[in-house]
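G., the chain you wanted modeled:
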Amino acid sequence: MTSNEKPAQDAATEEMRTLDASALKALAHPLRVRILDLLAERGPQTASSLAALIGESSGVTSYHLRALAARDLIREVAGRGTARERWWERPRGRMSFSGPNDEMTPSGRAAAQIVEDEFFRNRHQRLMDHLHRPQSEVPQEWRDAAHHMTTMLDMTAPQLQELAQQIDALIEKAVQRYRGQTGPGVRRVTVRADLFDLPDGRPEGAAARRATETEELS
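Predicted structure as tokens:
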């Protein structure tokens, strides 16, 4: 194991946290979802550093940080900071939440909808920022490493589920190998995967004429 690698057993102890209704309601604010994303993306931050990133006052970010901490969505970094300048981090591990569904209460559905909308809006904005970044700001090796692909396939639901499981296993292997890595040349990267069915207006027999269309941007 090099100094840049994290022991596999550390990754194995990380747990998936499923957000309950109270946690979802605490998170159901655009700035709170953004703060949680920034803590995951950039590591520990203070109210002041988050304010500079978001474009709000430190009083506003401090208020939302306390609300997130009250539901254990974030935590104070032990041994760092002062009484006036506290550092906050997102606990390691994955968070999962159900999208709005009919089994939720009206307030629960509204909270889940806000969280889901903001999560995917931030995710899309991150992609747009990457695509619009001037090439002069991106080292050549990172331009070459970036990869975007969209593929259209004809599959059954079980086949799509199997593909999703294979992708999950591949990403989990990378998570266990690389999470926590530090050192020269290391940057935070984002891994995206979206698998879902498309409304199918094709006539009967169209499957015989199906084609796979792939677009790659790099």
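The longest helix spans residues 106-132.

Shout if anything looks off.
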